[in-house]
Design a protein that fits this description.
239 residues, alpha/beta, Rossmann fold, 8 helices, 39% helix
């Protein structure tokens, strides 16, 4: 039998809150979602970049505002200070956006180091603000051979670690070198259709969450910690 809240040990009862259903059903703001796209290869003809650019076109058509970050020149994590211009550019874009798309090749059965370096440069907290918490994420990968899901599975783990809402759908393009034409546009195929599906789903989740992030990421444990810190300060002043 569940204990009443007041009988449960180590609980600050005033930190509990009833579910505010009005927050769940509040009108969706019509402003364009802002989406940041990252890709994981510096090759001159990078298929992860081409896939990201194709995704950006779809997102624009669906009403989003997009930015594609070019990782060329981004230093390795901890190889320089965070005031490096490329690091600052990436972090500003991470704060700017409502959601992200991560597009990586699979190399040696994993996402690339270039992809991981970009994610590693985005901190969990920056000047008291969490730049990724509660934002949406779509993951995609391109494969040189048969279809695989190693990279997207790894990126899902990272998305969860970054406290992002990773949407259920994902894209994995097999033999990516066959899926783009001489103009670097993706050919009509089931792979292209899947990317459209993923971007459409990303837009839906972003519309639902972008104006409600504070509500969805509000946590009892953090409210309790804040309340206890406040009490300690009051007690210290009264001593």
């Amino acid at each position: 039998m569940t204990k009443p809240i007041q009988d449960m040990p180590n609980v600050v009862t005033e930190c509990f809150q009833d579910t505010d259903k009005s927050q769940l059903t509040a009108p969706i703001e019509e402003s364009a979602p802002k989406i940041l796209l990252l890709y994981g290869s510096l090759r001159e003809r990078s298929f992860s970049r081409l896939a990201a650019e194709e995704a950006a076109r779809i997102l624009n058509r669906l009403g989003a505002e997009t930015r594609v970050f070019n990782p060329s020149g981004l230093p390795l994590p901890d190889d320089t200070d965070a005031d490096h211009p490329k690091v600052q550019e990436l972090r500003e874009l991470a704060s700017w956006c409502d959601g992200m798309v991560w597009s990586s090749p699979e190399r040696h059965g994993a996402m690339t180091g270039i992809m991981k370096a970009q994610i590693d440069w985005i901190p969990l907290a920056m000047q008291g603000v969490r730049p990724t918490q509660g934002k949406t994420l779509a993951v995609m990968q391109v494969c040189g051979g048969s279809q695989s899901f190693n990279a997207v599975n790894q990126m899902r783990i990272l998305g969860r670690w970054m406290r992002m809402v990773t949407i259920p759908n994902q894209s994995s393009v097999a033999k990516a070198w066959m899926e783009f034409d001489d103009n670097d546009r993706m050919k009509p195929s089931s792979y292209y259709d899947r990317i459209v599906d993923v971007m459409e789903e990303l837009m839906k989740f972003t519309y639902l969450l972008k104006d409600k992030r504070d509500y969805f990421t509000d946590r009892y444990s953090e409210r309790k910690e804040t309340s206890e810190e406040f009490r300690k300060r009051i007690d210290q002043r009264s001593m």
